[in-house]
Amino acid sequence: MEKDWCDEQGNVYPLLNMKLIDEFSEEVRKTGIHKEVKK
Predict the structure, then answer these.
(1) Of 6, 34, 29, 38, the residue nearest 15 (C-alpha)
(2) pLDDT in tens, 1-39
(3) Backbone angles phi, psi at 6, to 5 degrees
(4) What pLDDT shows up at residue 10?
(5) Hey, what long-range contacts does 1-7 have (CB within 8 A, 24 or more apart)?
(6) Whose CA is closest to 34, among 13, 7, 12, 14?
(7) Which residues pair with 13 in a beta bridge?
(8) The dihedral formed by the CA atoms of 3, 5, 11 and 13, expressed in degrees to the nearest 10
(9) CB 4 within 8 A of CB 13
(10) Which of 11, 16, 19, 38 keeps 20 to 30 A from 3, CA to CA?
């Protein structure tokens, strides 16, 4: 069972938003945004 997903800024994305997270994760894999959070 997956846990709620959170980014390095501490924002939590509940499982209710997993479809959105899947799309975001796709962008993460493309852009590496998980390593460099834009402000």
Answers:
(1) 6
(2) 556 667 777 777 665 566 776 777 787 777 765 555 555
(3) -135, 150
(4) 75
(5) 7/34, 7/37
(6) 7
(7) 5
(8) -90
(9) yes
(10) 38
Contact predicate 31/39, CB 8 Å: no
Which domain, by its residues, includes 33? Answer: 1-39
Domains held by the chain: number: 1
In which residue are the tokens 């924002």 written? 11
| Dist. CA 8–CA 13, nearest whole Å | 12
Question: Can you give the pLDDT at residue 12?
Answer: 73
**Strand residues in the chain grouped as ranges (E):** 5-6, 12-13
